[in-house]
Write a structure and sequence with these properties.
10% of the residues lie in helices and 72% in strands. It is mainly beta.
């Protein structure tokens, strides 16, 4: 839970009032979750059953509440005054979610009748509640103001990096009657609630104003990078080391024979 409240309430009787709020709360979260299983079988396994199960459900919840408010109330005569209110609000929220669920299986020798089962259930959840309120309330009665300047510059930035790696790597050397069962269930969820309220309320009764300037610059930015890798790699070293196809060998012999015959003809 993260909350910032910068509120000002004032009642003055001078000729100049200037209020400035510079709010730049920063929230940075690094979530690194590594669920890895490394299995190395050096000798041969006969009728062996190997099971790997990963259930990963990391949850990240952030509540950002930022309240920048100015309340001005004036009831007596106030002539030739200048009222200036400026709010600069730039809350920044950055989350790095790195979730690695990997299973690496290395089988160096032959395995006969073995069963390998790998199951990965990955459900990372990220939820962000951003409530940002920038408000100026001006209430006057029987007053005379020369200049009223109200400015709100609101640039909330929310950035989420989701890197989810669910990978299975199987490396074997000769598979005889082997069963390989691989299952990946990946349901990453990212939810962001951005509620931004930039409000200016003027309540004027019985007053003459020369100049009233109101400016709101609101540029909320939300960026999400979702990279989800669900990869299954099965590599059989026996197949990689297999001899070249017979057709290539025959073709090589034929070419060599043809070249030898041409040389003999030239010598004759």
């Amino acid at each position: 839970m993260f909350g910032i409240a910068a509120s000002i309430s004032c009642a003055v009787n001078n000729n100049s009032l200037s209020i400035v709020i510079d709010s730049e709360p920063t929230t940075t979260i690094y979530n690194l979750v590594d669920n890895s299983v490394n299995y190395a079988q050096i000798s041969a396994s006969i009728g062996t059953a190997t099971s790997s199960f990963i259930e990963s459900k990391p949850i990240t919840t952030i509540d950002n509440i930022v309240d920048n408010s100015v309340n001005y109330m004036h009831t007596s005569t106030f002539g030739g005054a200048t009222i200036s209110s400026f709010i600069e609000s730039k809350p920044t929220t950055t989350i790095y979610n790195l979730v690695g669920n990997s299973v690496n299986y290395l089988q160096t020798n032959d395995q006969a009748g073995a069963t390998t089962s790998i199951f990965i259930e990955s459900e990372p959840t990220t939820t962000i509640h951003n409530l940002i309120k920038n408000s100026v309330n001006l209430n006057t009665t029987d007053s005379y103001y020369r200049t009223v300047n109200i400015s709100i510059d609101s640039e909330p930035i929310t950035t989420v990096y989701n890197f989810v790696d669910n990978s299975i790597s199987l490396q074997t050397n000769g598979i005889v009657g082997t069963m390989l069962n691989n299952f990946i269930e990946s349901e990453p969820t990212t939810t962001i609630y951005n509620l931004i309220d930039n409000s200016i309320n003027l309540d004027i009764d019985g007053a003459d104003y020369a100049t009233i300037s109101i400016f709101i610059d609101s540029e909320p930015t939300t960026t999400i990078y979702n990279l989800v890798d669900n990869r299954i790699t099965v590599q059989d070293l026996a197949l990689l080391a297999a001899p070249e196809p017979v057709s290539l060998s025959v073709l090589g012999v034929a070419l060599a024979t043809f070249a030898f015959i041409r040389i003999k003809r030239r010598e004759g």
